[in-house]
Design brief:
There is one protein chain. The protein contains four helices and six strands; from the N terminus they run ααβββαβαββ. It is α+β, with helices and mostly antiparallel strands. The protein folds into two domains: 30 residues, no CATH class; 108 residues, Aminopeptidase (3-Layer(aba) Sandwich). Helix 1 crosses helix 2. The relative contact order is 0.14.
Length: 145
């Protein structure tokens, strides 16, 4: 989670994020609800090394929100993001989520492009966050098992 915040804070500021900025962002935007009945959190590994993460927050019956999706810079471009999102969608569908939604900032062009390639489409705004430049959603298929 710390690498996620280091990356997004640094990209937002246009320079490396300081440890204090990362700590502040983690306190301002807690992730402790990504478990139990409120959501879930997954990591993706390359061998034994964690190279990414992502979570789904349950918003209302049938609706989940993708959050904290991150792939280390050196693991990008090799399908890790696609694999992670596919796993998040599969687990979501098994937890009775029929629609996944997300917001993405304009400066996160790689992420925005990946979401669009995976079938996420623009929807009416559902967040007032100053970091929510684009609002996307996708209907999930039925998962057996």
């Amino acid at each position: 989670m710390e690498r996620f915040f280091t990356d997004i804070v640094g990209r937002y500021r246009g320079r490396p994020a300081s440890p204090a900025e990362v700590e502040r962002a983690m306190l301002d935007e807690p992730s402790d609800d990504l478990r139990d009945d409120d959501g879930f959190f997954l990591v993706i590994r390359d061998g034994t090394r964690v190279v990414g993460c992502g979570g789904v927050r349950f918003i209302e019956p049938g609706v989940g929100e993708l959050t904290r999706v991150f792939i280390d810079h050196d693991a990008r471009g090799r399908g890790a993001g696609r694999s992670l999102i596919n796993a998040l969608e599969t687990v979501s569908a098994r937890r009775d989520v029929s629609t996944l939604r997300l917001t993405v900032r304009s400066d996160l062009t790689e992420a925005h492009g990946l979401y669009q390639r995976l079938g996420y489409e623009a929807v009416d705004p559902f967040s007032t966050s100053p970091y929510a430049d684009h609002h996307l959603a996708k209907k999930l298929g039925v998962v057996m098992g």
